[in-house]
Amino acid sequence: MRRLRLGMVGGGQGAFIGGVHRMAARLDGQWELVAGALSSDPQRARASGLELGLSEDRIYSSYRDMAAKEAARPDGIDAVAIVTPNHMHAAPAIAFLEAGIHVICDKPLASTPEDGAAIAKAVQASNRHFILTHNYSGYPLIRQAREMVRAGLLGDIRMVQVEYAQDWLTEETSNKQADWRTDPAKSGAGGAIGDIGTHAFHLAGFVTSLTATQLSAELDSFVPGRRVDDNAMVMLRYAGGAKGALWASQVAVGQENALRLRVYGSKASIVWQQEDPNQMQFTRFGEPTQTMTRGGAGSWEAAAHATRIPPGHPEGYLEGFATLYSDAAHLIRHSDDGAPLPEHCILPNVQDGLAGMRFIAACLESAGAQGAWVSCD
Amino acid sequence: MRRLRLGMVGGGQGAFIGGVHRMAARLDGQWELVAGALSSDPQRARASGLELGLSEDRIYSSYRDMAAKEAARPDGIDAVAIVTPNHMHAAPAIAFLEAGIHVICDKPLASTPEDGAAIAKAVQASNRHFILTHNYSGYPLIRQAREMVRAGLLGDIRMVQVEYAQDWLTEETSNKQADWRTDPAKSGAGGAIGDIGTHAFHLAGFVTSLTATQLSAELDSFVPGRRVDDNAMVMLRYAGGAKGALWASQVAVGQENALRLRVYGSKASIVWQQEDPNQMQFTRFGEPTQTMTRGGAGSWEAAAHATRIPPGHPEGYLEGFATLYSDAAHLIRHSDDGAPLPEHCILPNVQDGLAGMRFIAACLESAGAQGAWVSCD
Amino acid sequence: MRRLRLGMVGGGQGAFIGGVHRMAARLDGQWELVAGALSSDPQRARASGLELGLSEDRIYSSYRDMAAKEAARPDGIDAVAIVTPNHMHAAPAIAFLEAGIHVICDKPLASTPEDGAAIAKAVQASNRHFILTHNYSGYPLIRQAREMVRAGLLGDIRMVQVEYAQDWLTEETSNKQADWRTDPAKSGAGGAIGDIGTHAFHLAGFVTSLTATQLSAELDSFVPGRRVDDNAMVMLRYAGGAKGALWASQVAVGQENALRLRVYGSKASIVWQQEDPNQMQFTRFGEPTQTMTRGGAGSWEAAAHATRIPPGHPEGYLEGFATLYSDAAHLIRHSDDGAPLPEHCILPNVQDGLAGMRFIAACLESAGAQGAWVSCD
Amino acid sequence: MRRLRLGMVGGGQGAFIGGVHRMAARLDGQWELVAGALSSDPQRARASGLELGLSEDRIYSSYRDMAAKEAARPDGIDAVAIVTPNHMHAAPAIAFLEAGIHVICDKPLASTPEDGAAIAKAVQASNRHFILTHNYSGYPLIRQAREMVRAGLLGDIRMVQVEYAQDWLTEETSNKQADWRTDPAKSGAGGAIGDIGTHAFHLAGFVTSLTATQLSAELDSFVPGRRVDDNAMVMLRYAGGAKGALWASQVAVGQENALRLRVYGSKASIVWQQEDPNQMQFTRFGEPTQTMTRGGAGSWEAAAHATRIPPGHPEGYLEGFATLYSDAAHLIRHSDDGAPLPEHCILPNVQDGLAGMRFIAACLESAGAQGAWVSCD
Predict the structure, then answer these.
(1) Residue A364 and residue A377: Cα distance in Å, rounded?
(2) Rounded to two decimals, what is the model's pTM?
(3) Measured between alpha carbons, how far is A306 from A146 in angstroms, rounded to an integer?
(4) What are A135-147's pLDDT values in tens digits?
(5) Which of A202, B357, D244, D270 has its CB 3.0 to 4.6 Å from that of D236, i.e. a possible disulfide?
(6) Do D95 and D149 reside in the same domain of the chain?
């Protein structure tokens, strides 16, 4: 079984998320990085490519060039990972889709609704896969939680509490990561709501399989001079009557990546925290709370699909991310080579990306209208 | 030093909170229960009184009778504890105040704004103390947290997350406690927001010393047929620019009395949970999180005032409640006998009760107006 | 129902554990403190007694005097609480037993085996109760754990891990509490093993209902000049084949009163920690761990007997201690007045005290013999 | 920079730890698996090799053959990973060392002291590296803890509590993993002490930099018919006066891989748990406990060396294991190519393996001599 060939746009020296994608792609041995337009600066592109062991002829300084040349090679890349800042997602995504190459794209989908729509149109026009790395959906217990909800164990969902709190933007900050994320021209008009709020929003929908129909939002920029929100409170109404509260903050002192999900149904509840992802609390009404562990007693097939090692040996962020890459490999082998598709192979796609864009837009609209409930579906 | 003499209205056999008040009053040896109108049913009143060791002549079946007779005795009660359902707070409170007797009253203040206002007027007209048992403010680390905020350790408060989640009303339930709490005629128009939401609201204000000026609320009654809210999401705006999110639920499966407070400032944050009240997380921005324990290393005088035993030996709900009774004793000895008033003697009063009434009313108003931001100060 | 009359020996101004006994006695309203030999210094005895509201004629400066006079009064004390340092337990205990008065005595039983034996003989000769305040056995979930083991839920017990770690003697320390506890003439030859090791040893036996038959110990005095052990590792063999590991330390930096018990059987296990006493982990082999809460879903009658308020509202150290006082009241009312004895009324007695004395002696013997296994039953 | 070439002995279809080594080797992109004697069964060896993408000519069914042929190739393997059961470590390790190939070997070193000594002799005779995968030493916070101890932050170490508890052998069990681990001919005479006790023993020594000089042990086989220990209590004496308690169990119901380390010094303590490895408690005497996170505020260079992603995004078991592989790559590049050796590159070696063998032997000797203290250094 050959490894799939991966290209990468962005992720050169000094970048952050590109390295994460590369580790995730390597972990399960399904992918090999063979090409890259790692930087728009030709020198940095070359140095970065050599450091990663790419052949000189597959180090590009233009993603357009790369799309064209890789599409023409018999051993061209199967998929490209796009790991640039948000405003640089749409153009390369469309270029590779049009070149017949699958796309794995970092989130959020784009920096503007227009860009998002253009990507969706390109996906539609191609018959290629578009995978959006809402990586937290790759955690085994999140997969299990989703199945537990779908199996009806929680009864009717009533209340969803989801939050993603960080503190790295508590003060005025300047560095590569902070700069583009707080620049509306690069990140889009949403700050915390775009960068981490969309993760929280997606996770809640992923686990509950519910569609948020309306929201009411209050956005703040607590740090003087900040041009995007750094703290957001959002109330959600889901189809079917469930309610949600979402909090995203980048000024929550003491929080690192505190993504936490709590789902309360008429029969049971689940509680999960990203910083301690190998366990989940499950409580049936009237019974003691159970701690379910990743792969431990009573764990589900959907979690087993996304796990590598026995319970009690923690898997983390990179493993969850790697599951998206492995699922992507299964999906591509299935569509390109007719390989059987394993059950429980679930991937966020362009529709999830569009939902995230609507979420951002609705938050801005509601916050601008004194918290009016606005549609987000 | 004589024990103060306490009377009680409500709290007869089968009641819940009356027993709590009695244990709280006993713990520190400052009070002695000597009189009671424990039930409006004379037989139950008598049986309850005898069980508690009251003299026959101080067992009443009418609080009016009790107010009059106790006021006339040379050894009459110093204070009365009112532990009836909400709609039965105002009349006895006013009667005892008018009889010149201090009042310790369970929360919320009343079942209607009119009743609340009448109590406040009676307090004003008397020169007696009115203490509202927002008992969570008696926890030592809550007292310390308040002082830490006031000392500026957290910087400017930006975001308050407070929640009080229970699950005992997850299904349709009928028993003495549930019945009156879900009957608007007895509890008032608020359900969860009145019963536990006011606790959360008070706690946030107590610790931050901030005044909430506006709120936006979404109320639900998830259990079919329920006449009051059983789940409430509230967004708050505080004077000075801080924001708050408050969640009160009585249908949160797996939660017992999960009152949790998180306060994020520009310099530091604190996190505290009522179910594990002997520790608190404190994080200065850029430093590791510290776990402060009740009475442990680095603890404050305000906590010491409210604590009885060394760190590592947990104090709980009854001790926090008892602190209100002991502080009440200090206050009464101070005003009645000129005894010195210890520092750190802080008690919720009728103003806090009125703020709670405004909170309930504003939640109902906002929820009825599609979440419009309405004033609550 | 009249309150029982309590006397106290020791516990004057500046003492620690006497105040704990008084709060414990007050909480449930079963006892009234009416007499005391609170100090051997007459002035301090008088000042302490007045502060506690005792009548002048029942403030004694000699416990012998008190035993004689109280025995002679028609309204004499029902029981005496002995809360002096260890070397001062035997003489007053024997005096009150001989005067026909029940004894509630702080632990350990005595400072020497000879004293312990003398107390036991006096108990035997009287028909009075002797209650030793191994107070941790009063925690509701500890009561429940004991019943769960007895009901066979854990199968055959295999391994017990019990530890009691503190840090207050990490450095050379001088204060009232430290001084007598590190003086072999007052505390007995055991330091940490006597003061807190006996608590751990008792708790393990209480919950498992197993008898330790042999032990092997390693004792250290890490602080230069200390005359008693401040750190002890002990291996235990129980009748029936279970094994135990016990650790007691007063130099474990960062630990306040970390008494922790873990019991592993062939079918299930339980884990409980004194600093967070309102929950207990219970795991059946092959099933997810359950968190049982005090009074919560699935809780047992034995816990309910020892609990006062609903789950989620924490009870703590004083409540557990108070349960011993309330159980003592039940026991005394039963034997003296023929009142019915509630089920689940369980109290540590002089036999437990003797077992603790043998534990201390065996630790010293084994440690002096290079860890040889020695008998402790 | 070329990837290093890795071979593997053992780890064919159905094996467990081989897959872990492969993921660990892949994660950081420093290694490429190019050859294997994955099974002694030629068919399984071939099928396993093809599945892993090995060239047919580098799939071997004999490790001797592989050692000879790989040594002869210009592109032969740089190192071999030995992932067979314990009794099959020595022969291949010696063969590859003699062929001039670096060895990465799973733990414990061997199934007999003789085999262990033979390996050590072969290491000595070669100038090749021998790395023993005590993988828990690769956790970032463990690296940091070691440096904190070495920097004197804890003062003099007094007490070490280390335990490794599992429950998978609670009942009689038969499967590939259980069978060889409970067969003395394959695992060696130690059961739990060899399989997981050596991990705990190594971890304690790694973090404290102390040498255990004597131990006293009590071993049990709780499951009827089991031929090796499944529960072990060990007391340790370290050079310099520190004491240790070690517990290893495979019958501790409810425990998955509960490796936990607590180190108490005269100035401070640390507490760390493998199942939640991204945080560590650090307490200076007289100060609040701090929670140090992997890469968070106040983290050390030694942890940064072993970490990949920002704090709050958990790394786990595979990342810790991968750090050993990356450190091994650094070491080999340094010795073979003269590349600079990064600071903080620390690897368990054959001396650690011999110490583990002495630990096992001493446990057996002491347990056979009624817990006598025996030398283990």
Answers:
(1) 15
(2) 0.97
(3) 13
(4) 999 999 999 999 9
(5) D244
(6) no
